[in-house]
Structures are given as structure tokens and as C-alpha cells.
Write a sequence for this structure.
DNA sequence: AATACGGGGTC
DNA sequence: GACCCAGTATT
């Protein structure tokens, strides 16, 4: 049996004796099998949970579908953020089968603003898997659950334990924080190895028949009591045997390597107002199907080099204008509309938005001269311009003139949602 | 093992 | 600002 944790522990121990270092945390925890602190932990945690658990929408039924949807939504996302999304999503897609059969656009639209949109696409793909392979019922075997798109070690464990009461570990950020403090584990929780070590501890902690409550209790403790910055040790149900607290280390745990800062990117967007038969509409495009914000709609924009303070954007505005020219458009002079900041996990955008008004009469004239029809779609030149913008392959980019009402149909990332809502809001004023 | 992938709340 | 959140997929 190749147990990486134990193997590592033993190996360390042989040299440790010479160096005089302590055994690893994993060995120590393993050794306290008979210790009161494990049984105490599980017992007190469950007593506390039974008394203090929150009334959350997905806790009102033990429907594996509800549990699953909530767990996907809760990935890297706070409970308070998820609740309204969960209600809307379940109302729109009440069953796995209805989710599987819906247009993908609808699923992503329901996810709009929640972020990590591959979660939505994977969720639907997995629903289709379940319909095809399991007759529309969430499977209860580990291998089948784990095989679902978008379901990793945490979510598989969460579904199996919470929905089916199987004694499987479900180790998320909360659980790692709680365990690292209670057992004084100083391993870096950013490393997958540490999560695996935690997963090995859990089965030995789950009281018979209480897997569902136990795993939820562990996360609930992390969310309500054993919080990241300043844990509420004084009201913690397991404070008595918490080694982190006893050693005064609770604020130093868990150990976690810092994330890199997002790289700054300057971008220049255009909010082009339609005229003539496109009066009241705005030009938008769809992002490529892969990569950042895959398949979502946005205002056209390009990478800009100049610093945010730079006044002279002549060159870059020129590039933006080329993009529109390639669409066969003409417009009034561009003027600054607003600047928006938006931070992703790995990129920080400073998006300067210019506005201009389409001039179809000029266009019509140009079209007559050049022989290009009035309703120009997307010529190859535009695709190339986008390619140069590294937005993707460019070839598949779609364009649309949208009215305010169209925003109910298609999904935008929050950055553009904010800009467009502001724009349409102002348009109604005047 | 490292990086891509959103968005927002909190101290 | 920095950190973190009921993480997963891809490289």
C-alpha cells in the first residue's frame, strides 16, 4: 500500500530522530486514534450543529439534484451570494432532465453574474450524462459521481455524504481551516497533498450514520465560528481540545502560500449607438467559446498599451476604429464615456469606454460607392482584427445590435452588465 | 505542480 | 489593498 502521507511520515522520521525533529502532523493525528480528542471533536461538533445549523434552501430537502446544484454554485462563492441564484435556477430547471434539455444559453443566462461560467456549462453537460447513463437520477456510487463533468474530489464527497449519507470526505477551504487549527497541521493548504491528507483523517472522525450532518457541521463551523481572520474560539464547541488555540496559533493557521497578484491590462471599448433602423440599439459581440468569459457577450474592445493616465489615445482609438470600419460601419467622433475597473482572479482590467453614434447615411453612401451592401455581416477583416486582439480565433465571433430588452436573453459578464445598465438607464432619462 | 477561471464580501 | 470563499480542469 502506497500511502503518500504515511510513507512521507516514516521517511521523515528516520532522519528526524537524528535531527531531533518531531514527527509529522499526519503521523501524530494517526497515532491519537484512541485519544479522547477525536471522539470529543465529532461529538461536540454534531451537538453544536444540531442546535446551530442555518436554514439554507438546499437543506430543506434531501434531493441529490438540489444538493448538487448548490455545491456547484458554492464553489469559490459565498452562501449569501448563492441563495438567490439557487432559487431562480431551481425554479427554471426543476429537474435534472429539464436542465439537460434546456438551451445552453438559458443555463448560462441563469448563471450571469455568478462567475466561473464553465461551472454552468459543465453542470448542464453532467445533467445530460445523468440522463443518458443513469436514467435522470443522480448516481450514488463514488466512481459515477466523480465521473460527472465539473465534479471533483470535494463535490463528489459532498454529494455522496450530504445526499446519500455515505462516509466520504468532503474537504473544502472551511474543512482545511478547521482541521489545520484543531489538529495543529502546519502543512500548506494550497498544496493538493495537504487536502489528500485531510481526506484520510475524515472517515475516522465521522460517527456511525452521521456522514451527512458531520461534513456539513465541519463546513458550518468553518463558516460561522472558525473564520479565517479572527476565529471565535470563545464560543467554539470544540475549543477545549483545539491544539491551534491551545498553542496560541489559531490566527497563524492555516498556512497558505499567497496568490499572485492579477496582471494589469489596459483595454479600450466602444459603446456604439445605432441610428436609423438601429436606433436605440448598441453594438455587442460574442466572445469565443473557450477561455476567459467563454461565449459571453460584451462591448467590442481591444488591448491598449497606454497607461490609464495617458490622455493621448490617438493610436489606439485608431485601432478601435479599424475594427468598426471592418464591419462596414461609420460613426460620429468618439468621446470618453467612462472608465471601469474589473478584477478577475488573474487579470485586472482598466477598461476605458468611448462612445460614438452610428451614421448610417454616410454608411449608405459608402456602401453605394464600394458596392458593399448595407447590412454587412462580419467580413474576414474584422475576424483578423479580433485575432490580432488575441480575443480568440476571431473566426467564430458573432455581432449583434441589441436593445435594452435583449439583455434579458443573452448573458454578459458583470463588467459589461454594469456599463450597459448605466447606458440604457441614462438613455431612458433623456 | 502550476495556472486559468469570476465576482464579491470583509477586515 | 489583501485575503478568501462549500474548487475544477487543463497543462
Amino acid at each position: 500500500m502506497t500511502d503518500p502521507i504515511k510513507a512521507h511520515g516514516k521517511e521523515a522520521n528516520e532522519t528526524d530522530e537524528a535531527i531531533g525533529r518531531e514527527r509529522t502532523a499526519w503521523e501524530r493525528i494517526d497515532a491519537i486514534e484512541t485519544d479522547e480528542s477525536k471522539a470529543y471533536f465529532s461529538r461536540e461538533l454534531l451537538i453544536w450543529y444540531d442546535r446551530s445549523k442555518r436554514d439554507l434552501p438546499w437543506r430543506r430537502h434531501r434531493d441529490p439534484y438540489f444538493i448538487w446544484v448548490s455545491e456547484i454554485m458554492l464553489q469559490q462563492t459565498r452562501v449569501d451570494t448563492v441563495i438567490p441564484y439557487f432559487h431562480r435556477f431551481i425554479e427554471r430547471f426543476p429537474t435534472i432532465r429539464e436542465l439537460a434539455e434546456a438551451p445552453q444559453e438559458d443555463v448560462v443566462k441563469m448563471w450571469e453574474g455568478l462567475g466561473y461560467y464553465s461551472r454552468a456549462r459543465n453542470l448542464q453537460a453532467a445533467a445530460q450524462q445523468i440522463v443518458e447513463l443513469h436514467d435522470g437520477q443522480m448516481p450514488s456510487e463514488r466512481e459515477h459521481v466523480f465521473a460527472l463533468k465539473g465534479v471533483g474530489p470535494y463535490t463528489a464527497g459532498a454529494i455522496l455524504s450530504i445526499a446519500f449519507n455515505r462516509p466520504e470526505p468532503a474537504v473544502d477551504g472551511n474543512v482545511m481551516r478547521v482541521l489545520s487549527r484543531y489538529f495543529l497541521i502546519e502543512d500548506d493548504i494550497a498544496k493538493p497533498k495537504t487536502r489528500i491528507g485531510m481526506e484520510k483523517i475524515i472517515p475516522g472522525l465521522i460517527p456511525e450514520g452521521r456522514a451527512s450532518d458531520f461534513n456539513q457541521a465541519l463546513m458550518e463551523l468553518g463558516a460561522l465560528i472558525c473564520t479565517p481572520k479572527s476565529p471565535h474560539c470563545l464560543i467554539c464547541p470544540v475549543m477545549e481540545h483545539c491544539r491551534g488555540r491551545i498553542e496560541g496559533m489559531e490566527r497563524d493557521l492555516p498556512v497558505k502560500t499567497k496568490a499572485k497578484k492579477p496582471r494589469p491590462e489596459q483595454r479600450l471599448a466602444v459603446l456604439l449607438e445605432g441610428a436609423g433602423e438601429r436606433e436605440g440599439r448598441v453594438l455587442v459581440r460574442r466572445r469565443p467559446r473557450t477561455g476567459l468569459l467563454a461565449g459571453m457577450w460584451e462591448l467590442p474592445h481591444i488591448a491598449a498599451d497606454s497607461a490609464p493616465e495617458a490622455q493621448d489615445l490617438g493610436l489606439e482609438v485608431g485601432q478601435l476604429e479599424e475594427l468598426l470600419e471592418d464591419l462596414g460601419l461609420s460613426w460620429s467622433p468618439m468621446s470618453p464615456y467612462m472608465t471601469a475597473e474589473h478584477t478577475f482572479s488573474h487579470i485586472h482590467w482598466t477598461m476605458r469606454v468611448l462612445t460614438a453614434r452610428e451614421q448610417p447615411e454616410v454608411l449608405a453612401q459608402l456602401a453605394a460607392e464600394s458596392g458593399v451592401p448595407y447590412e454587412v455581416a462580419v467580413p474576414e477583416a474584422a475576424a483578423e482584427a479580433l485575432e490580432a486582439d488575441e480575443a480568440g480565433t476571431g473566426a467564430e465571433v458573432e455581432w449583434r445590435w441589441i436593445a435594452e430588452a435583449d439583455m434579458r436573453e443573452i448573458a454578459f459578464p458583470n463588467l459589461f452588465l454594469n456599463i450597459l445598465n448605466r447606458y440604457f438607464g441614462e438613455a431612458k432619462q433623456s
Observations:
- Residues 263-429 of chain A form a domain with the Nucleoside Triphosphate Pyrophosphohydrolase fold (CATH 3.90.79.10).
